[in-house]
Amino acid sequence: MSNKKYRITIIEPSEIVSSGLKHLIEYAGIFQVVKTFRNLQEYAEPQNGKPDIIIVNPSIVIANGFDSPKSIAAKENTAFVAINYGAYDDEILRSYDGNIGIFNTSEQIEKKLQGALKISSDKEQEDGSNELSTRECEILTAVAKGKTNKEIADEFNLSIHTVISHRKNISHKLGINSIAGLTIYAVMNKLLDVEDF
Asked: Mapping DSSP to helix (H, G, I), strand (E, B) and coil, where does residue 82 land?
């Protein structure tokens, strides 16, 4: 039997919920909660290794303009699990690798987290890479700085149609359709510094 402990980050505004969830998760012994955050503004991927699983309240993802939880972290093989104690549309929950209900037992949570790891791994093998190209990162940075399509086209010596195409590809790959969401993604993934604003 492996001694590996899967690293988990929890992003949940309720301290009671995140503390209780941490206790139940660590009870299983194969998971370790490395960090908890109350919101995405506090969230930062740890320098000493990225989490295997991010458990996040879907309302946080929605409130920050993201269509998909995968948009909040750069690591492709991170599993995303919803902590579900609200009424969410099935379409929203389908974008997660799993979800934990408020009434789940420790054993049920362990099974759901293991299932999410497997689903995430399977999706990664099927999807290939959703990473942004160097040019897409440059376009994303310009969009996050508030530049118009024409300004971006002039800066990179591209046609406006090419810029629009890049922006569509970026939104599709990241699952983010709002400029605010793209800006948060750029800052969180160190494509931009907060001082750049």
From this structure: strand
